[in-house]
């Protein structure tokens, strides 16, 4: 199976590239906006002229990880590097006969749910709170369109938190308090989940959570297990000292409770 990974030189992309390359069942190539010291990872700017599209010929599955990954990304950046770039990738994938795209989506689609108790299933109403989250919602809806109208199999993986630091070990050092810790994703669970999405048969479209099996988390991964046969091997319960709980309570007050009170007060005028 020929798998092409966009963003193959990045944090997640290179891990997945090396993981698949080590297996005889896969032929792996990659594209990245920056030069990478590997003969099968090529330079491609998805916001520029689509000379990179020739690399899609003969590809079975594209894993689309490229894009601006920062929650603080500007509208200018996410429109170019996430939204427009994904449209280009899908257009050329369909034209070149690619069978499937596995899309890196994000939990920032549900940024408004941080201080709620809602269980986060694949069909939970979206609520992005920043341009990055909005761009990922756009990419998911683009995925649904190309699946429905162009016959492209697309699996959108709402990837949890795989850290660049701390050896990707979970714990209270992670930002965003309990919310951040409960979306932890170990390296081996990331790799096994993505490989399952690449290999699964007869799945035209799906939106799935990809986290480790963290006790008490609100993200539903039973759908992921059922849809692609995902079998997480890791999990960690959130550790929240008093200082973290106080910080989260203050964040909740400032970001949710006070704006709601202000809205009600203004509605009474």
**Mean pLDDT score:** 92
Number of separate domains:
2
The profile of the biggest β sheet is: 7 strands, parallel
User: Which structural class matches the secondary elements?
Assistant: alpha/beta
Please give the oligomerization state of what you see: single chain
Low-confidence stretches: none
Within the largest sheet, what's the order of strands?
A: 3-2-1-4-5-6-7
CATH superfamily of the largest domain: NAD(P)-binding Rossmann-like Domain
The CATH class of the largest domain, by name, is Alpha Beta
Name the beta content range.
5-15%
CATH-defined topology of the largest domain: Rossmann fold
Number of helices: 7
Which helices and strands occur, and which strands form pairs?
Elements lengths: L1 E5 L4 H11 L5 E6 L8 E3 L17 E4 L10 H21 L4 E7 L24 H20 L2 E7 L17 H6 L4 H13 L5 E6 L11 H7 L13 H26 L2
Parallel strand pairs: 1-2, 1-4, 2-3, 4-5, 5-6, 6-7
Helix pairs in contact: 1-5, 2-3
What does this structure look like?
- This protein is an alpha/beta fold and 269 residues long.
- It has 2 domains: 2-238, NAD(P)-binding Rossmann-like Domain (Rossmann fold, 3-Layer(aba) Sandwich), CATH 3.40.50; 241-269.
- It is 39% helix and 14% strand.
- The chain has helices at 11-21, 75-95, 131-150, 177-182, 187-199, 222-228, 242-267, and strands spanning 2-6, 27-32, 41-43, 61-64, 100-106, 153-159, 205-210.
- A 7-stranded parallel beta sheet has the order 3-2-1-4-5-6-7, sandwiched between helices.
- The radius of gyration is 19 Å and the shape is globular.
């Amino acid at each position: 199976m020929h798998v092409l990974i966009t963003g193959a030189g990045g944090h997640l992309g290179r891990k997945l590239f090396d993981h698949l390359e080590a297996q005889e069942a896969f032929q792996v190539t990659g594209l990245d906006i920056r030069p990478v010291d590997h003969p099968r990872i090529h330079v491609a700017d998805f916001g520029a002229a689509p000379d990179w599209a020739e690399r899609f010929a003969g590809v079975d599955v594209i894993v689309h990880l490229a894009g601006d990954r920062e929650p603080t990304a500007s509208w200018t950046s996410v429109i170019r590097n996430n939204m427009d770039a994904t449209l280009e990738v899908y257009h050329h994938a369909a034209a070149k006969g690619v069978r499937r795209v596995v899309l890196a989506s994000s939990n920032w689609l549900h940024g408004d749910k941080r201080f709620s108790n809602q269980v986060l299933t694949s069909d939970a109403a979206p609520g992005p709170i920043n341009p990055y989250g909005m761009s990922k919602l756009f990419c998911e809806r683009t995925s649904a369109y190309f699946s429905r109208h162009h016959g492209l199999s697309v699996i959108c993986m709402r990837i949890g938190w795989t850290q660049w630091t701390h050896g990707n070990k979970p714990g209270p050092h992670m930002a965003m308090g309990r919310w951040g810790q409960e979306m932890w994703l170990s390296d081996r669970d990331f790799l096994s989940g993505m490989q399952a999405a690449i290999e699964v048969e007869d799945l035209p479209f799906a939106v799935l959570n990809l986290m480790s099996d963290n006790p008490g988390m609100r993200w539903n991964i039973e759908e992921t297990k059922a849809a692609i046969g995902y079998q997480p091997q890791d999990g960690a319960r959130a550790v929240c000292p008093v200082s973290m709980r106080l910080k989260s309570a203050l964040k909740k007050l400032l970001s949710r409770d006070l704006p709601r009170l202000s809205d009600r007060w203004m509605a009474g005028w």
